[in-house]
Structure formats: C-alpha cells, structure tokens
Amino acid sequence: MSIVPLNPVPSQTVTVTVGGQVARISVRTIGSELYFTLQDVATNRICRDRAPLLTDARYRGFVGDFQFIDTKGRDDPQYWGLGDRWQMVYGE
Questions:
Q1: Which of 2, 4, 17, 77 has its CA 20 to 30 A from that of 62?
Q2: 77 phi and psi, to 5 degrees?
Q3: What is the sign of the dihedral through the CA atoms of 65, 66, 68 and 69?
C-alpha cells in the first residue's frame, strides 16, 4: 500500500507512480464533497471513507485502486485534512 501525497487545499493535481504506472490525479472540492479524477480512467468520483474509487474502471487497464482513509474515525474526506487526517492510499 502506498500513500499519495496531498495537501490541505480545495483543489490540486498530483502525478505519482504507483504499481509501475504513472497516475495523474486531481482532487477537488465541489460544495461540501471531495471528488477524485484519474486522468484517462475515471472522472469526478465522489470520495468516501474507505471506499474504492476505481472498482468499475478496471476494464480501462489501470491496475490497482485508490481510497481515502480517515485516520481519526470514519468520516468522509474534507480538503482541510488531506495529507493528515485523511490519507489517500493506493493498493494493487
């Protein structure tokens, strides 16, 4: 399992290498919800605590999945706690 480095800001894009694949990830806040986009694979997936983000996107050839983990409970992620309270993790 790998941690994707995120900052506590409302909108950001990061590029990481996970499972031997380059992943361009955007995380943005719309209203009170956080959304995840993986370039060329999945767009605007709502982020929930411990919920896989790519479950139905496997047919696009991306190996593994991402999810957010609340390190202090079971709440859905909020931008102000990214990288601290809420960690985005990747697992194959």
A1: 77
A2: -65, 145
A3: positive
Distance CA 19, CA 1 (A): 10
Q: Which residues of 51-62 are buried (b: 16+ CB within 10 A; e: fewer)?
A: eebbeebeeeeb
pLDDT, one tens digit per residue, over 16-58 is 999 999 999 999 999 999 999 999 999 999 999 999 999 876 6
**Residue in this structure with the two tokens 């601290």, named with its chain if needed:** 84
Answer whether 0.90 is exceeded by the pTM: yes
Share of the chain above pLDDT 70, in %: 97
Q: How is 43-77 classified by DSSP, letter by letter?
A: EEEEP-BT--S-GGGGGGS--SEEEEEETTSSPPP
- 36-44: long-range contacts, CB 8 A cutoff, minimum separation 24: 36/66, 38/62, 38/66
Identify any residues that bridge with 68 across adjacent strands, giving them in sequence order: 49, 88
